[in-house]
Write a structure and sequence with these properties.
Helix content: 55-70%
Largest sheet: none
Shape: globular
Oligomer: single chain
Distance between the termini: 84 Å
Radius of gyration: 20 Å
Length: about 180
């Protein structure tokens, strides 16, 4: 039946690859549809749990991305899937710029580097969950462990983005 509908196993794989990347784009729609309406800090607080939920619910995505990396993104390139990621790239650029204009985010934050960190932190949890469960001697697939990781990643990313608070207790020279 594969040959009847898709012509080859390779064509089926390409179709599934497109589908899983499309589902990730749907997961981001809440943010990419109206980036100007969401608070910059809340965008980060929302993205990390959204990616965790997506990756938990779509183990095929994790495996396929790992497979694509083993094969140097051969099918990713053939299917021209880089463009699928453009909406979130544009949106995060806008959100970081907005946070900078509001004086909340550091001016030297590079949006591409931020996205790489966001993706890497979330994806790594799921791509290495089985070995890290053994290394850490904790079941990382539990909701409690995932929630702890979501909080930690969110705090780490926000610590990178946010300007340090002004120290109101600093000596003002009055005595």
């Amino acid at each position: 039946m594969i040959y009847e509908y898709f012509g080859s196993k390779e064509a089926l794989y390409k179709r599934v690859l497109e589908d899983v990347y499309g589902r990730l784009g749907e997961c981001e729609t809440f943010l990419t549809a109206h980036p100007d309406e969401i608070d910059a800090v809340e965008a980060v607080r929302t993205l990390v749990p959204a990616y965790f939920a997506f990756l938990k619910d779509n183990p095929t995505y994790v495996r396929m991305v790992m497979w694509e990396n083993i094969h140097e993104a051969r099918y990713f390139d053939e299917q021209q899937l880089a463009g699928v990621r453009n909406p979130i790239k544009r949106t995060m650029k806008e959100i970081i710029r907005k946070g900078q204009e509001e004086g909340r985010f550091r001016s030297d934050v590079d949006d591409s580097q931020f996205l790489l960190s966001l993706f890497a932190c979330c994806f790594n949890y799921f791509s290495n969950i089985h070995t890290m469960t053994r290394v850490m001697n904790a079941d990382l697939s539990t909701d409690e462990q995932m929630q702890q990781r979501i909080v930690d990643i969110t705090n780490m990313l926000l610590a990178h983005l946010l300007l340090p608070p002004t120290d109101l207790t600093a000596d003002t020279g009055n005595g």
